[in-house]
Amino acid sequence: MARIAIFLFFFFLFLSAVVEGVPKAKKVKCKDKKFPQCYKSQHYCPDDCLRTCVVDCSSCQPVCTAPPPPPPSPPPPPPKPRKLRSPPPPYIYSSPPPPPPRVYSSPPPPPPYIYSSPPPPPPATVEPSPPLPPTPTPPSSPPPLSPPPSSEASGQKKVRCKNRGYPHCYGMELSCPSDCPSQCEVDCVTCSPVCNCNRPGAVCQDPKFIGGDGITFYFHGKKDRDFCIVTDSNLHINAHFIGRRNVDMKRDFTWVQSLGILFGSHKLFISARKTSTWDDANDRLYISLDDETILLPNQEGATWSNSTSYEGIAISRSRKTNAVEIEVPGNFKIKAVVVPITEKESMIHKYGITQEDCFAHLDLSFKFYALSGNVSGVLGQTYGNNYVSRAKMGVAMPVLGGDKEFASSSIFATDCEVARFSRELDGKESSVEAAAYANMSCGSDMEGQGVVCKR
């Protein structure tokens, strides 16, 4: 019995030690006043987290949470700067004094020879000049900005409105369009630059026409031949065509090289001189009136002064070279410009232009003041009272025939089949007033398709 009692004593002693070693459950409370039914109610942590739990106030139940992470350790203090020791001063060695100069026992030199002439004057003492003040250095300025490329530098000509009747545009400088960088004028009405070959009444490039009715058509003619383009009772205009044969198209590329104009009792001749290499500074324009050569200084605005026998005819340069304006009051006005076929145009349209001849020709603008209803000619017929265009419309290139009908035997001949010239104005069938017809321009088409006249 004694043994059993001793065993039981030690067994209970062991159990009490075990029970004391188990941690007690922690009491926790809800601390959120938003949940009054659970606020400050005590709960014991579950067995899974006897010491680390919180109360979920919404469900009023203790829940386990992970213990908070330990606070981060403070950063180590920065190292203290080390004091650098200054190097010791350099050691100065004391050099021994130099030895005294050695004295030789040679006899002394003879005394200098004394001349009886007075001694030379002592040299003049030159006082040093004060130092010059330092030259102030000017502040460095930035290099001047280069101006933007102007239209002149890019090859585009500058033009101005010269009609004082349009003060809103008079004198305003404008640049030629890219389609005609060197051949344009200002339309003072719209105050905008217009290509010469796009102005009303143009005959430009490879003959293409826009008639008085506003319809565009082409007239090719033939090279080295003369054709009547306007014929009326008081005005007759022939055009001499030059050109090259196009084998593939079986026709000639043609341009207007000269005009023969008859009005009243006068003969006016306008021509582009033949030239090989083009230089716009050289004047290639020739004008004669009644077989008298008209000479104008190479200066823009230069005017030829006519006598009373020429009925007020005015001829003036619109540029320094190769451009003139001719007006016969009450009859017509012509603007003529000499232009070449450039290498670029020849390459694009396969003109086959060589260095021997650049085919200088005329770009022309017409304005008529008095035409009768019976007017005819390649261009003139479009001003007639009963004119109906014979060109086929709706195609890319409406061509007007009539080579035989409009052919003349020479530049001043009036023998074409449709000739009307009688040197006097026929007032019975007058159809053209000064304001009724716009300008007409004629010349070669850039597409190589014929001479053009535009209204």
Low-confidence stretches: 113-121, 123-153, 432-438, 445-450
Gap from first CA to last CA: 149 Å
Helical proportion, percent range: under 10%
Alpha plus pi helix count: 3
Q: What fraction of the residues are assigned to beta strands by DSSP?
A: 25-35%
Biggest sheet record: 10 strands, antiparallel
Description:
The protein has 455 residues and is mostly beta strands. The protein folds into 3 domains: 26-59, no CATH class; 158-196, no CATH class; 199-454, no CATH class. The chain contains 3 helices and 25 strands. Strands 9, 10, 11, 18, 19, 20, 21, 22, 24 and 25 form a 10-stranded antiparallel beta sheet that branches. A 7-stranded antiparallel beta sheet has the order 17-16-15-14-13-12-23. A two-stranded antiparallel sheet has the order 1-2. The longest helix is centred in the first third of the chain and has 20 residues, at 2-21. It is elongated, with a radius of gyration of 56 Å. The chain starts with a helix and ends with a strand. Mean pLDDT is 75; it is low at 113-121, 123-153, 432-438 and 445-450. Keywords: Signal. Residues 65-79, 115-150 have a biased composition (Pro residues). Residues 64-92, 115-159 are annotated as: Disordered. Residues 1-21 form the signal peptide.
List the helices and strands and how they pair.
Blueprint: H1 2-21, E1 27-29, E2 42-44, E3 53-56, E4 61-64, E5 158-160, E6 173-175, E7 184-187, E8 192-195, E9 202-203, E10 206-210, E11 216-218, E12 225-232, E13 235-246, E14 251-263, E15 266-272, E16 285-289, E17 292-293, E18 303-304, E19 314-317, E20 323-328, E21 332-339, H2 343-349, E22 361-368, H3 403-406, E23 407-408, E24 440-445, E25 451-454
Antiparallel strand pairs: 1-2, 3-4, 5-6, 7-8, 9-22, 10-11, 10-24, 12-13, 12-23, 13-14, 14-15, 15-16, 16-17, 18-19, 19-20, 20-21, 21-22, 22-24, 24-25
